[in-house]
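Figure 3 (text version): structure tokens given as input.
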């Protein structure tokens, strides 16, 4: 019996944690390199000095490491013990908690900035997670969300079936549906833009060599496609003030 056989068919937070600890992060690098994409993203959203920043589903802490280098005061939450062990070694002074996003162990109105990057679609209850994000954010706080688009062109053409995490849970939605969810949770969407992290050699030349031409073609096409065809889209939001 393999690791995934132990996880399915009953899905709850404990079984999702088992997937991430024993499968997804099994071979995680203890010293992953911060990408140029994340550095550019941090510069775009600065200044960071003295901002209390929470990353929900922080994983091994790449994004937290990026903004700490710019002066942010970091906190993170993730369901994976293994990911947090790696994150903690890189950020020993960060506030890190092992918890599902639907039950964030932080006080109301604690953070100036909250991010959740490429994770909402994997949560058991994304609406509850969004409510928690709004709860722990200060009024007017900035919230950055990165979500997949079910109208991604290669998916519609049958060339894409989801990420590795689809083995346990992955629920893509149209961009309009995501935006309605954000607004219902108490967020105002101020800006949206393409996720172009695939414009890198590390992404194009990943996997078998015979897949490289197709990956290169996709990476080069993304900047030209309309937002409605994109794979993932950033949503920069503000917590609505009462």
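Below: residues designed for each position.
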């Amino acid at each position: 019996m393999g690791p995934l056989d132990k996880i399915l068919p009953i899905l709850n937070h404990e079984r999702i944690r088992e997937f991430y600890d024993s499968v997804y992060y099994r071979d995680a690098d203890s010293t992953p390199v911060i990408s140029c994409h994340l550095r550019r993203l941090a510069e775009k959203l600065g200044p960071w000095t003295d901002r209390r920043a929470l990353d929900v589903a922080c994983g091994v802490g790449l994004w937290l490491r990026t903004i700490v280098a710019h002066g942010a005061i970091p906190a993170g939450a993730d369901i994976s013990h293994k990911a947090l062990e790696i994150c903690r070694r890189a950020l020993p002074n960060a506030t890190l908690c092992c918890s599902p996003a639907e039950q964030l162990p932080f006080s109301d109105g604690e953070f100036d900035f909250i991010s959740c990057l490429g994770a909402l679609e994997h949560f058991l209850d994304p609406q509850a997670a969004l409510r928690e994000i709004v709860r722990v954010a200060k009024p007017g706080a900035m919230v950055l969300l990165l979500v997949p688009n079910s109208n991604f062109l290669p998916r519609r053409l049958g060339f894409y079936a989801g990420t590795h995490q689809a083995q346990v849970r992955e629920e893509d939605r149209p961009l309009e549906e995501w935006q309605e969810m954000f607004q219902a949770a108490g967020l105002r969407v101020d800006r949206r833009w393409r996720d172009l992290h695939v414009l890198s050699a590390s992404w194009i030349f990943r996997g078998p060599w015979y897949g490289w031409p197709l990956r290169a073609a996709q990476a080069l096409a993304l900047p030209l496609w309309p937002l409605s065809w994109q794979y993932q889209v950033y949503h920069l939001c503000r917590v609505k003030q009462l």
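The chain is about 35% helix and 20% strand.
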